[in-house]
């Protein structure tokens, strides 16, 4: 067997591939809506509010997968009081691009929340259906308190009433990606919140089982 047949990628070719992948993501960004520094500053502020609000209380942060993982990871490090964390995963029923308003739980909490102070951590609130449903089922478990912190809010898209306690940024009705938010499960690793070029999501896409083409990210245009 020739050594050529076993040729391994060189460091240079690996770097080139990574560079190309990064360029591709940026190519699809129409503009940066909220830069990484502004996000970090706001997350630190939110952490301070939470410190003040929950001092001396039994706090449980509940991250709603997957979009909120980056926000959750930064937020919990901006909180200095003791607390625990847990995760839930939800999905809308159906593959339609229109919101059904029906949510199902893919992963529930690992623990009871009765008597505890629960803070739901979300990346974005759009129609509000996900959190309206989640707050309904979590309230039924009798927590001492149940509040919501979201990095982003799209008030124009709201379809149901929802009390949101802390909002990082209120944003216009544009398709945003980055800092945990995806389109077709891609772009979550961008360090900023960017607006996706419309031609990316108006081009025919292969069906995805993720939520990335969900109505929560559809524009009304
Ligand atoms: C997003 C977001 C919220 C939900 C908000 O999740 O993280 O959970 O949509 O939309 P709503 O207010 O219209 O209910 P998505 O379904 O995109 O899943 P992901 O977090 O796994 O990307």
Descriptive keywords:
221 residues; alpha/beta; 6-stranded mixed β-sheet; 3-stranded antiparallel β-sheet; 5 helices; 9 strands; binds 1-O-pyrophosphono-5-O-phosphono-alpha-D-ribofuranose
Describe the protein's architecture and organization.
The chain is an alpha/beta fold. It has helices at 11-27, 36-54, 69-78, 129-139, 198-202; strands at residues 29-34, 59-65, 84-92, 103-107, 117-125, 145-153, 166-170, 176-177, 193-196. The strands form 2 sheets. A 6-stranded mixed sheet has the order 4-3-2-5-6-7, with helices on both faces. Strands 1-9-8 form a 3-stranded antiparallel sheet. α2 (36-54) packs across α3. It starts with 10 loop residues before the first helix and ends in a 19-residue tail after the last helix. The relative contact order is 0.17. Mean pLDDT is 85; it is low at 1-9 and 207-215. Bound molecules: 1-O-pyrophosphono-5-O-phosphono-alpha-D-ribofuranose. 1-O-pyrophosphono-5-O-phosphono-alpha-D-ribofuranose binds at residues 64-68, 99, 122-130, 182, 211, 214, 216. Residues 64-68, 99, 122-130, 182, 211, 214, 216 line the site of 1-O-pyrophosphono-5-O-phosphono-alpha-D-ribofuranose.
Quick structural overview:
The chain has 221 residues and is of the alpha/beta class. The protein has helices at residues 11-27, 36-54, 69-78, 129-139, 198-202, and strands at residues 29-34, 59-65, 84-92, 103-107, 117-125, 145-153, 166-170, 176-177, 193-196.
């Amino acid at each position: 067997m020739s050594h050529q047949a076993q040729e391994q990628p060189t460091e240079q070719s690996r770097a080139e591939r990574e560079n190309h992948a990064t360029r591709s993501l940026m190519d699809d960004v129409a503009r940066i809506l909220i830069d990484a520094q502004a996000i970090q500053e706001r997350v630190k502020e939110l952490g301070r509010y939470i410190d003040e609000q929950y001092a001396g209380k039994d706090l449980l942060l509940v991250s709603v997968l997957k979009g909120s993982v980056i926000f959750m990871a930064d937020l919990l490090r901006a909180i200095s009081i003791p607390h625990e964390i847990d995760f839930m995963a939800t999905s809308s029923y159906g593959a339609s691009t229109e919101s059904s308003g029906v949510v199902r739980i893919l992963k529930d909490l690992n623990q009871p929340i009765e008597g505890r102070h629960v803070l739901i951590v979300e990346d974005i609130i759009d129609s509000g259906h996900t959190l309206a449903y989640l707050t309904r089922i979590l309230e039924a478990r009798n927590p001492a308190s149940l509040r919501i912190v979201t990095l982003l809010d799209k008030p124009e898209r709201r379809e149901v009433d929802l009390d949101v306690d802390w909002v990082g940024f209120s944003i216009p009705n544009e398709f945003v990606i980055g800092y945990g938010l995806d389109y077709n499960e891609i772009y979550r690793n961008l360090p900023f919140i960017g607006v996706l070029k419309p031609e990316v999501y108006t081009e025919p896409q292969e069906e995805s089982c993720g939520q990335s083409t969900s109505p929560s990210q559809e524009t009304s245009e």
